[in-house]
From TrEMBL:
<keyword id="KW-0808">Transferase</keyword>
<dbReference type="GO" id="GO:0016757">
    <property type="term" value="F:glycosyltransferase activity"/>
</dbReference>
<dbReference type="InterPro" id="IPR001296">
    <property type="entry name" value="Glyco_trans_1"/>
</dbReference>
<dbReference type="Pfam" id="PF00534">
    <property type="entry name" value="Glycos_transf_1"/>
</dbReference>
<feature type="domain" description="Glycosyl transferase family 1">
    <location>
        <begin position="234"/>
        <end position="388"/>
    </location>
</feature>
<protein>
    <recommendedName>
        <fullName>Glycosyl transferase family 1 domain-containing protein</fullName>
    </recommendedName>
</protein>
Length: 428
């Protein structure tokens, strides 16, 4: 059983439709576990026909031959009253029956306290002694403070999140290591704070780069030599990804302006696109940075991107709320250290990789100071580049798939009586 909070559309004729990226993940998961399972049963909210009609171009259809079926305990537009008094109660018998047949529950945290589907499923699995994998892919613990500081939340919304929703979520973090057979937190700080030192609680990174994307040892040496010399006196920074407000691109542009005022010879390359592109161009022009800040259209991950990054010294990130960008590892793989605000994800990366320079969130002046300091110390920059490649080489997608498979077998399957679970659905 695979339990998620992402809605899916269930057609009366039998096929289902999932958001395209999620559908690819489910299909890959089904292929990964191979002949060990019969089917994946997806447990999620039901998307309405109207919403599906509006989003169908971004969704992928799965049929019975894909080995995936669906069980929707409630409609995505159900009120909390409808969830508790009608939808979930009616779904309890089929859910309980499906869990009896299942081999593993793949679940996570319920963020919605009004309709806490995943939390309820975790409790049901614990009551049935069903092996459970609990995954949390983001550290939410500073969200309330940050959204309030940024002016995104009213005092009422801040209070609701800080004193009601966050304690509910933290309670799940405390219980997960006690109730689940395998717990995966994205970030070593979550493991340190909630793992209780238990062997089945692990940090993980969700990477997509391969060993072929990582610079060779000879290429690293050449890059270190280039970084450590003054052959390229202009310090070139890069950001590649989506142009959304949460990425803090306006803070990055502002930091470049501040850094140049201190006579730092610096340029910025922004690769990507999104809703904020026009606003960014306006900001760049208003600050008089058109000669040193360039916007490049989005390019696919691969050779073309790598060519653009060859002349770049480091990458920059300024997440305004917690973010776990895969682009961080893509940058590491090409020998690019990162300058970033000190969010939980980048603090963890800094401690584990030695390839991140941190600035105080969300201060553009602090970010500018970190950029200027790194630009002035090319020896440090070269050492960080070597650390970046080494860290990327030990955290490829294949490496993490292998680690997760090993953990899944150790904590979810090998420790159980497999014969007693022959008919169950494995979804790890």
């Amino acid at each position: 059983m695979l339990a998620v909070q992402t809605p899916a559309y269930e057609d009366p004729t039998g096929w289902i439709a999932l958001e395209s990226a999620f559908a690819r993940h489910v299909v890959a998961l089904r292929e990964e576990v191979g002949n060990e399972i019969e089917r994946i049963v997806l447990v999620c909210p039901r998307m309405s026909k109207q919403v599906y009609g509006a989003q169908r171009h971004h969704m992928t259809v799965l049929r019975d031959s894909d080995g995936v079926e669906i069980l929707c305990p409630y409609d995505e537009d159900d009120s909390s009253l409808a969830f508790w008094t009608r939808s979930f109660l009616a779904s309890l018998p089929p859910l309980w029956k499906q869990m009896k047949r299942a081999r593993v529950l793949h679940s996570g945290m319920a963020f919605n306290i009004r309709r806490p589907l995943l939390a309820l499923l975790n409790v049901m699995a614990w009551l049935q002694d069903l092996p459970t994998l609990f995954v949390l892919d983001i550290d939410f613990r500073e969200d309330a403070r940050r959204y309030r500081r940024l002016g995104q939340w009213s005092i009422w919304k801040y209070a609701l999140n800080a004193f009601v929703l966050e304690p509910f979520r933290r309670l799940q973090l405390h219980l997960a290591p006690l109730m689940s057979d395998l717990v995966l937190f994205k970030g070593s700080s979550l493991v340190a704070d909630y793992g209780r030192g238990l062997p089945h609680v692990h940090a993980f990174y969700d990477t997509v780069h391969s060993a072929n994307d990582v610079l060779s040892e000879a290429a690293v040496q050449r890059r270190q030599g280039w970084l450590a010399t003054s052959e390229s006196p202009t310090f070139i920074l890069c950001y590649f990804g989506r142009f959304t407000w949460k990425k803090g691109l306006d803070r990055i542009v502002e930091a470049i302006s501040i850094a140049r005022q201190s006579d730092c010879d610096i340029q910025l390359l922004l690769i990507g696109g999104g809703d904020l592109e026009e606003a960014l161009r306006t900001q760049i022009e208003s600050l008089g940075l058109t000669d040193c800040v360039k916007v490049h259209p989005q390019v696919e991950y691969g050779r073309r991107l790598f060519e653009l990054l060859e002349a770049v010294h480091a990458c920059v990130a300024a997440p305004l709320v917690e973010d776990t960008p895969r682009a961080a590892f893509d940058a590491f793989a090409r020998g690019l250290p990162i300058v970033s605000f000190d969010t939980a994800y980048f603090r963890d990366l800094q401690q584990e990789s030695g390839a991140v320079a941190l600035a105080s969130w969300p201060d553009s002046e602090s970010l500018a100071a970190a950029i200027v300091a790194l630009a002035a110390d090319r020896g440090l920059l070269a050492g960080m580049a070597k650390n970046a490649v080494r860290f990327a080489a030990t955290n490829t997608q294949d490496t993490w798939l292998q680690r997760r498979n090993e953990w899944s077998r150790r904590y979810l399957l090998d420790g159980r009586d497999v014969d007693d679970h022959e008919a169950r659905v494995d979804c790890n």
